Amino acid sequence: MIKKILLLAAAFLTITISSVHANSSSVLGQLDDISDDSLQLAKVGKYSDSEKMLLFFSDMFIKGKKQIFNMDELRVITAAHDEALTAIRDKQASASKKVDAVTKFRLVIDAVKSNRQPLWTSMEDPMMTAFSQTKDAVKEKDSKQVHNQISILLNQYSVIHPSLKVDLSKDTLEKLDARVNFIKQYEPGLLSEESGQKELDGLQQDLKSIFDDMSKDEADPSLWWVIITTGSIIILTLSYVGWRKYKGGGGTESPRKERND
């Protein structure tokens, strides 16, 4: 009887954990879809409709934020959402600025939702291309082209930066930010100073390493949590049942020995 109760409890707990995870995934999936809709509308110039999707997101986000997101995610998502909404409402903002702001927001939501290969990793090719073109301009001593390519690179980094806050450790992000700030402040030195070129190489290598790491397939952590929890419950249940049998067997063995004696 006890064995059945424990097994039923294990099954119930497993189902409960899976149900909570499924519910969270469902809400996240809806928020992810809304952010994507907002981006697609912004790309074709339907800014009013894009704004409506951002406001719709806000309503859903407020209802589910306490159950789904941690404090760091809340801060990053809120900041990216506010920036996107401000840009999409700004009649003076260029089309590219509007799209970049909503893209930044879209990538953040995907970074929170995805446990492997987040969308921001798709920025690897354009960023690596910008690095290559910047280096070519440095070799040719073309200051104007260096400035243009650095601007492109910094803008690309700005678009993925909120997503990096979600997926990278604080130390790793601080290291990247330090390199980016150095290049931003000492851009003229890239043409003449070896230290500036080394920082550019270092930033490229660090970003390449991060892109490679994030592109690797990894098991969903939430799935591992369910597996480990379920396995632990089953092991404890079987151990308890075994102990009960052992204890029961030990209790009935003594009288036989006494009778045999």
Tell me what the structure shows.
This protein is an all-alpha fold. The protein folds into 2 domains: 21-113; 116-216. The chain has 9 helices and no strands. The protein has helices at residues 2-43, 47-68, 71-89, 95-113, 124-139, 143-167, 170-185, 194-215, 221-260. The longest helix is centred in the N-terminal third of the chain and has 42 residues, at 2-43. The two termini are 35 Å apart. The relative contact order is 0.10. The model is unreliable at 5-24, 217-227 and 252-261 (pLDDT under 50).
* Strand composition percent: under 5%
Count up the helices. 9
Give a quick account of the main beta sheet: strands, pairing sense, barrel closure. Answer: none
Write the H/E string, N to C: HHHHHHHHH
Helix content class: over 70%
Low-confidence stretches: 5-24, 217-227, 252-261
Task: Give the tally of β-strands.
Answer: 0
Gist of the model:
The protein has 261 residues and is an all-alpha fold. It is 85% helix and 0% strand.
How is the topology of this model organized?
Layout: H1 2-43, H2 47-68, H3 71-89, H4 95-113, H5 124-139, H6 143-167, H7 170-185, H8 194-215, H9 221-260
Helix pairs in contact: 1-2, 1-4, 1-9, 2-3, 3-4, 3-6, 4-6, 5-6, 5-8, 6-7, 7-8
Task: Give short descriptive properties of this protein.
261 residues; mainly alpha; 2 domains; flat; disordered C terminus
